[in-house]
Amino acid sequence: MQSIREKRETLEQVLVSDFGVRAAASKGRLRPEELCDIRTCFQRDTDRITHSKAFRRLKHKTQVFLQPEGDHYRTRLTHTLEVSRIARTIARGLDLNEDLTEAIALGHDLGHTPFGHAGERALNELMADFGGFRHYDQSLRVVDILEKDGNGLNLTFEVRDGIVRHTVDPLAATLEGQVVRLADRVAYVNHDTDDAVRAGILSESDIPGEIANVLGNGYSARIDTITRDIIRESLGKPILTMSPGVYFVLDSFHTFMYENVYKNPKAKSEESKVLGMLEGIFRAYTTQPEKLPPEYKIIAEREGLERAVCDYISGMTDKYAVDTFSRIYIPSAWSTL
Hints:
Structural class: mainly alpha
């Protein structure tokens, strides 16, 4: 009698095209494991990611706006969930493996710093003499090493490849990984627009007419247009593609957002403080390594103190980083007790 996993793997022979990756054909894990009788290897990866501590911390990490006042601004976690939903829709439309796509999407930003890309730039500067810092490399480091007390999550090759290749070339080895890369861009350009409108930095009428005329008006309409275009243009092909018109407009939309939001003084007014704060924390722990948590002392012995401190800081939430800086540098109230 077939197990539940085996039934699913048999079903994937029909549901997943030859351009996708069927779970039974995975290249496997860094450390071989006994197969689960219920879940495919990619379903297990999704579960491991969503149950990880790094995933939970994403809810308190900046997407674009640093510590915004309001409950409806995106965080790194809500960004991740939106990427996952867009990516799964595209994967289903193209007969790719939805479970693999979801696992990559949920894990792609696990290594992001506190304070968004401002934090990433700060750590990259602080680590300039020690290999630098890139959030996609750190995401892979999280799942390979840092989670589960240094044992990592032991994910499959396909998920690990998709995570580390979601931003940079060469492209991921799987179409599922390439779908996540594209869905990431579709998600952040659109939801950052939505947040910018909420913050009063933009209004929908500020979006150039050539963008609105092609993609539509509003967050949902734009995502729907782009998603349908990707599916229509890529179906039955071994590559992901978009129609020239939509591709050009999406690129123009990104340029518009970069100039009007990502460089906007109001949106970025607090970012100048990020480098000083993270540098202060970095210097404190590199000069007093005995104050590092035990698991990071082990990393320091194995890979060097600077890398261990970088790992510790990159895993912090925004609030924890602020509290840590305050604890180190702000005098406590004096008490007679």
